[in-house]
Amino acid sequence: xxxxxxxxxxxxxxxxxxxxxxxxxxxxxxxxxxxxxxxxxxxxxxxxxxxxxxxxxxxxxxxxxxxxxxxxxxxxxxxxxxxxxxxxxxxxxxxxxxxxxxxxxxxxxxxxxxxxxxxxxxxxxxxxxxxxxxxxxxxxxxxxxxxxxxxxxxxxxxxxxxxxxxxxxxxxxxxxxxxxxxxxxxxxxxxxxxxxxxxxxxxxxxxxxxxxxxxxxxxxxxxxxxxxxxxxxxxxxxxxxxxxxxxxxxxxxxxxxxxxxxxxxxxxxxxxxxxxxxxxxxxxxxxxxxxxxxxxxxxxxxxxxxxxxxxxxxxxxxxxxxxxxxxxxxxxxxxxxxxxxxxxxxxxxxxxxxxxxxxxxxxxxxxxxxxxxxxxxxxxxxxxxxxxxxxxxxxxxxxxx
Length: 401
Prior knowledge:
Elements: E1 2-8, H1 12-24, E2 30-34, H2 67-70, E3 73-77, E4 81-85, E5 90-93, E6 98-106, E7 110-112, E8 125-127, H3 131-141, E9 146-150, H4 154-165, E10 169-174, H5 186-198, E11 202-205, E12 209-213, E13 220-223, E14 228-230, E15 233-236, E16 240-242, H6 245-250, E17 254-255, E18 259-261, E19 273-275, E20 280-284, E21 289-291, H7 296-310, E22 322-327, E23 330-336, E24 342-349, E25 354-360, E26 366-373, H8 379-391
Parallel strand pairs: 1-2, 1-6, 2-3, 6-19, 8-15, 9-10, 9-15, 10-11, 18-20
Antiparallel strand pairs: 4-5, 5-6, 7-16, 12-13, 13-14, 17-18, 20-21, 22-23, 23-26, 24-25, 25-26
Helix pairs in contact: 1-7
């Protein structure tokens, strides 16, 4: 088996890479190697539209199934890449076959952290990363009365908002002192806590989970402080692990913290191999150094750019990071690099959930901004201004909404 372009990973980065390739090369053969047996899909609906029964699994697909044959893109589903021979330009597949390539994209993404918590194997205890996880949570939500989320980060808060919207009692546990504690300041974190508490949620911040308890099915969550929280469903959202093993075993240059080293065009240390998405340690324009981002739009944008560059564009990737979240009627957009500056200024009404928080570097310039509104359409104008301000290294004091 052979293809001019082989795209490993099969998520949104690979789909967008195929689109980028076709913009410049209408004929070169493209093969997407995808470990999951399903058609490629976008992950944001897994904790939003699908759980709220507003979308089907098919609605979440990255492209209509007709896109692939129309664009002469071959999909190899349910098959993983086992190893890469860089010198021979060949990929060994989990089904025993090999595929030769001219240009290779590695976009293997991430997997959900599965913490070593006793009882995690019980029915009613869920991780959320793949479409089957989302469908399983949705089914359990139909009968659940009390839900505990382990983690008050992106997954815990988004799933928690869905539970509250369905009238399910919600309790959230996290060892940090405020929601989204690894991403934002106490100003934003405490706003989220207050907004959720007004809808009936209970937070157990600064607490750690000792075990999920029950006989055959979840009955509760026991904390290390000794308290047990009754529950008939648990959702664990404690981060992800990037799938770096394939790139590392191939011998590509790796950053000690951020993954597969790539240059400004997303090319790796091998001239015939590119990387995109969660695993790519790219030159981040805000940080001014190698960094990585774990979010849908990063994979989307990098995949498209990597595809164009594989087809010869040679273009620099310099997008300012864009994170977003929707928690029922709370909408958020974040621009810049999380954990790279200090909270410096708040514009607007925090209590009303209509505000922008700016984060600054020691020199007073903006490195990150997060905007909240109950009107989703109000986010983009401020987000665009934040992007321009970050690129221009505007002072925090000079920013105007």
